[in-house]
Design brief:
The complex is a heterodimer. Chain A folds into three domains: 9-305, no CATH class; 310-421, no CATH class; 430-488, Arc Repressor Mutant, subunit A, CATH 1.10.10.410. Chain A contains 15 helices and 16 strands. Chain A has helices spanning 67-79, 176-193, 233-252, 298-306, 312-323, 327-334, 337-349, 352-370, 381-392, 398-411, 415-421, 430-443, 445-452, 458-470, 476-488, and strands at residues 9-12, 15-28, 87-88, 91-94, 104-107, 117-123, 126-139, 143-145, 154-156, 163-169, 205-215, 225-230, 260-265, 270-276, 286-287, 294-295. In chain A, strands 1, 2, 6, 7, 10, 11, 12, 13 and 14 form a nine-stranded mixed beta sheet that branches. A three-stranded antiparallel beta sheet of chain A has the order 5-4-15, with no helix packed on it. In chain B, the strands form two sheets. In chain B, strands 4-6-5-10-11-9-7-8 form an eight-stranded mixed beta sheet, with helices on both faces. Classes of the chains: A alpha+beta, B alpha/beta. Chain A binds chain B through residues 53, 56-65, 92, 94, 96-98, 101-104, 153, 155, 282, 284-286, 288-292, and chain B through 80, 86, 88, 93, 96, 98-100, 102, 197-202, 204-206, 232-236, 312-313, 315-316, 318-320, 322, 324-326, 336, 340, 360, 363-365, 368, 372.
């Protein structure tokens, strides 16, 4: 890993500005049913098909907490090295909107289920710790659809009441790259835990981005603006860049930054004011009297802790120790649980280092080209391990291996079958090779003499001849040994 | 046989069990009574056809082992009833037909009873006189100029006028006990969490509790037994074994310690109320109970505390009535905000609006600490007063209300004097305790007055027993002339 230096500043005419970023990530809890009702949470159902009387707030309906969602929040908290609060409270956040049936969102305000924690980022300039302020559980709202009809708004309540975890970071992030790394790390941890699928296209992971700027070296924070509901990492980065530049320009022109909520317009690539601090809603938070305070027994927390899977940071250490990988390789291979699972399966059956090299090279390139997740890889881990072993044992050369790999992708066949049926096996019989090389040398006596007289460049010519004659299948290492021996003789 | 409808629920059940009367005959008798009592404005909806069907079904295949065999029951229109309009006394729900049955009413039906109709009540149970209902005020059978109390005024009136053998109400600050007191009937507010709130139109969630309203203590025990029970659909429901209140009813109260709180003697309280209280003490003492003077020092803060907590919760609970998904929607609004404004302006009555405004105010940033938070702290102190007292006593005896039924229109322009009516009932809701109002006598106008027995949490059996002993020795008889028919 190259040790670069952190260098993300906005350059104004009056100096360099540091960008201070804090994120409120909304992660949809992976659960079969909603936070306070039995309705399904499956994505993609027809509008208003996953709505119970509770989700649509009929008179007399009462929320009942879904224990699985609570456990998922605790697991996530543990994964973020955070303090789990044995006592937390659900509050009502009151506001009117057509897709908010109760007229309030059940959320956690003063007493969240998870307190302070931390996340480690691997940046090119070293590892950086990002503080977690809190994590709380809350209900999602429904969806208002304004463009289906010129004069009416349609409301889809399928999302209404789905459990979200709001994960609030400390203002520790300093660049769009760090935001990228942070979101990816959070997503990776939650996927390892199975607490959120992290699918940003489906809205399972969204964030409100708080941005402020200050002169390099200043210790006080500047006035921040909150950019609401950004649903991709790219948009977050674009919004931050735009917003930071906007704020720097205001400061440089001697103007004041208003604390406000802004929207990111993805088409125009700009942030726009949504409402100022004065217009901010008064949400009239108060404890939801329909729900008792959530009391968690320490045993439940301890049991959940014991049952946590190995998380990326730990796994990375283990990969270095157990498989002899370097930090960079480990980092890449643990970034997603499925990738690490694939790697471990391959590494069990083949050379560990070579497997890593080939995975991160040809396999990732192929998946990337085809836009596939590793779980959808056309090459199974077992076949991939066989290919790695065939390279390692000298059965095929690296060059041939690339051809075999291509055929594996297309056919899904195992490499042994491909190598055999296409006669791609490397020629590794020393006697055969010696015979072939002797033939070449005797045909090119003049060149042998020249070589012996000092024209060492000709060595490449002999190798080329061997490869030509063998159809590229001659074992390169063995060829080298034999050729050197014979040329000396 | 003679008019069966003026009998107690328990007597009627005996008559049905011994086949002296069929469920159908009984139901028809109530239908007749109800049809001739329209002046009282007790019913919002009647379900006679459905009731007669159910009665016939019962008679064809009677099961006398149930608690409420073949009993037609009218219930407060705050309980959601499947396929039967449920209005909560409000214009905003005047077309609302639930697809579900509240747990409490379902429990009643599961014990052999069926729905006779839905009873008028104050809008969203906000009121002490049944004058805030969108469907007009209810008249107290005791006198044609009198309110029946509220918010369960339709329930108390129906019961006293023999329009239902027993009924249920809800009590957030006295809405069962005060109307019971005003009509010479029995009303019990159970321990918070004993009866499920699922399917009851919410007023103030931390205070609302459904309870029985009956002619006798025994009836009260039967109804409580039928309607109560743990419900996993209500997170505040108490998970405990079901009690057999009626079977375990005993009239021996010898040695029980009855607390008499000095703070319940308030200024300007009519002499008769005080005298009645003295009478009650004497009866209990004569039955072998021991009277103990106690102090509940934070009582005076109960009413202001209640009128912060209850509106705060109500302002949020009523936010769902926005015209979007069900109920009334104004056709006037040009956009979403205007639609909300018009719908809620036209849909809610003045008292409901007043409480939404109070509730919104006390929760607002900058006022929350001074009002809502402080009220919650005081609420804890009020609860602690009771907890401390109950270490040395079994129950508390107080008047139910500071006066008998007042005149229609007498207090409608003075909300605070209306609120003062709840002064003896409200502390119990804040503390989550069970309390019973039982008829004890009449004032100089001949209007009924009740006494209240407050018990420890989940000590319903004990206050029912005390009430049972009291009832036998009190000699009160509700003499209501049927002037309306």
């Amino acid at each position: 890993m190259s040790k670069e230096k952190f260098d993300y500043f906005i350059k104004g005419e009056k100096g360099k500005y540091e960008v201070v970023i804090g994120l409120e990530v909304h992660a949809q809890v992976l659960s079969k049913s909603k936070l306070f009702s039995g309705s399904s949470t499956k994505f993609g159902a027809d509008p208003n098909n996953q709505v119970s009387l509770i989700d649509s707030a009929f008179p007399g309906m009462l929320p009942v907490i879904n224990e699985e969602c609570v456990k998922q929040a605790v697991r996530t908290g543990l994964g973020l090295n955070a303090k789990i609060n044995n006592y937390s409270v659900f509050d009502r956040k009151n506001y009117f909107y057509a897709d908010l049936p109760q007229g309030y969102q059940i959320s956690q305000y003063k007493n969240p289920i998870v307190g302070e924690g931390k996340v480690l980022l691997d940046m090119p300039y070293g590892s950086k710790e990002i503080g977690i302020e809190r994590l709380h559980l809350e209900q999602d709202a429904g969806k208002s659809i304004h463009d289906m009809d010129p004069s009416n708004t349609y409301v889809d309540l399928n999302r209404s009441g789905i459990a979200l975890m709001e994960i609030v970071s400390k203002p520790d992030l300093r660049s769009p790259d760090e935001v990228n790394a942070y979101i990816k790390k959070l997503r990776s941890i939650m996927r390892y835990l199975g607490t959120c699928d992290g699918n940003m296209q489906e809205g399972s992971l969204r964030a409100d981005v708080n941005v402020s700027v200050r002169k390099e070296g200043d210790t006080n924070f500047g006035t921040r603006c909150e950019i609401k509901n950004v649903n991709s990492i790219k948009f977050m980065q674009m919004a931050i860049e735009y917003e930071a530049a906007r704020q720097v320009e205001l400061i440089e022109n001697g103007k004041k930054i208003d604390q406000e909520t802004r929207l990111f317009d993805t088409k125009k690539n700009e942030t726009r004011s949504m409402r100022s601090k004065e217009d901010a809603h008064d949400y009239r938070y108060f404890p939801d009297p329909d729900l008792l305070p959530l009391k968690l027994e320490q045993k439940l927390i301890d049991d959940l802790k014991k049952s946590l899977p190995e998380l990326p940071d730990k796994k990375k250490e283990r990969f270095v120790k157990e498989y002899g990988l370097n930090a960079y390789e480990s980092n890449v291979l643990v970034s997603e649980k499925e990738i690490s699972d694939y790697y471990e399966e391959v590494a069990k059956l083949s050379d560990k280092k070579l497997a890593a090299t080939w995975m991160m090279g040809d396999l990732f390139a192929m998946l990337n080209d085809r836009g596939l997740d590793i779980s959808k890889s056309p090459i199974s881990a077992k076949h991939f391990a066989e290919l790695v072993q065939a390279i390692k044992s000298g059965e095929i050369s690296g060059r041939i291996a690339k051809e075999v790999f291509e055929i594996m992708v297309e056919s899904g066949d195992n490499p042994k079958k491909i190598i055999e049926s296409k006669g791609m096996k490397q020629q590794s019989d020393p006697k055969e090779l010696e015979k072939m090389i002797n033939e070449i040398l005797s045909k090119n006596k003049d060149k042998v003499d020249q070589y012996k007289a000092g024209k060492e460049k000709l060595y490449g010519f002999f190798i080329g001849q061997v490869m030509k004659l063998s159809g590229g299948k001659a074992n390169p290492q063995l060829t080298n040994e034999i050729l050197k021996k014979l040329l000396k003789g | 046989m003679a008019d069966i409808t003026n009998q107690s629920l328990n007597e009627i059940i005996e008559n049905v069990k011994t086949k002296k009367i069929s469920s159908t005959e009984l139901t028809k008798a109530y239908v007749k009574n109800i049809e001739s009592a329209k002046k009282l404005n007790v019913f919002v909806t009647t379900t006679f056809d459905q009731a007669l069907d159910k009665a016939k079904q019962f008679d064809n295949k009677p099961n006398f082992d149930q608690l409420l065999p073949g009993m037609p029951l009218a219930v407060k229109d705050l309980f959601c009833t499947e396929n039967t309009k449920t209005t909560a006394g409000s214009n905003i729900l005047n077309n609302f037909i639930p697809s579900y049955e509240s747990t409490v009413t379902k429990n009643l039906w599961d014990h052999g009873s069926f729905l006779l109709g839905k009873l008028n009540c104050d809008e969203f149970a906000m009121g002490s006189s049944n004058e805030t209902s969108h469907f007009g005020n209810v008249i107290n059978p005791v006198g044609d100029q009198l309110v029946p109390g509220g918010s369960s005024g339709g329930s108390s009136s129906a019961l006293a006028a023999d329009l239902t053998p027993a009924t249920i109400g809800t009590d957030t600050g006295g809405s069962i006990r005060q109307p019971a007191s005003f009509t010479g009937t029995v009303g019990l507010k159970p321990t918070y969490g004993l009866c499920s709130r699922w399917g009851i139109v919410a007023f103030a969630s931390s205070l609302d509790q459904a309870g029985p309203m009956t002619k006798t203590i025994k009836d009260c025990a039967i109804m409580l037994e039928a309607m109560s029970g743990f419900d996993k659909k209500d997170s505040t429901s108490i998970n405990k074994k079901k009690e057999q209140y009626s079977k375990n009813l005993k009239d021996n109260i010898k040695g029980l310690k009855i607390g008499i709180p000095k703070e319940y003697r308030v200024d300007n309280m009519p002499k008769e109320v005080d005298e009645l209280w003295e009478k009650g003490k004497k009866i209990l003492k004569d039955l072998g109970a021991q009277l103990i003077d106690i102090s509940l020092p934070h009582t005076k803060y109960a009413l202001p505390t209640y009128y912060i907590v209850a509106p705060a919760e109500a302002s949020s609970n009523l936010a769902r009535y926005d015209g979007v998904r069900y109920g009334y929607r104004s056709k006037q609004g040009k956009d979403l905000i205007e639609m909300y404004e018009k719908t809620r302006s036209e849909g809610f009555g003045d008292e409901v609006k007043r409480r939404i405004l109070i509730g919104t105010y006390v929760l607002s940033s900058g006022y929350y600490d001074a009002y809502y938070l402080k009220a919650q702290k005081v609420r804890q102190l009020i609860k602690k007063d009771f907890d401390d007292s109950f270490k040395k006593i079994d129950a508390i005896l107080t008047p139910s209300t500071p006066s008998s039924a007042f005149k229609i229109g007498e207090k409608t322009n003075d909300p605070v004097s209306m609120y003062l009516n709840d002064i003896f009932t409200v502390p119990v809701n804040l503390a989550g305790l069970p309390a019973l109002s039982m008829p004890a006598g009449v004032d100089n106008k001949g209007h009924p007055l009740g006494l209240q027995l407050i018990g420890k949490a989940l000590d319903e059996q004990k206050i029912l027993n005390i009430g049972y002993a009291f009832e036998k020795n009190c000699g009160f008889k509700n003499e209501i002339k049927k002037w309306w028919s």
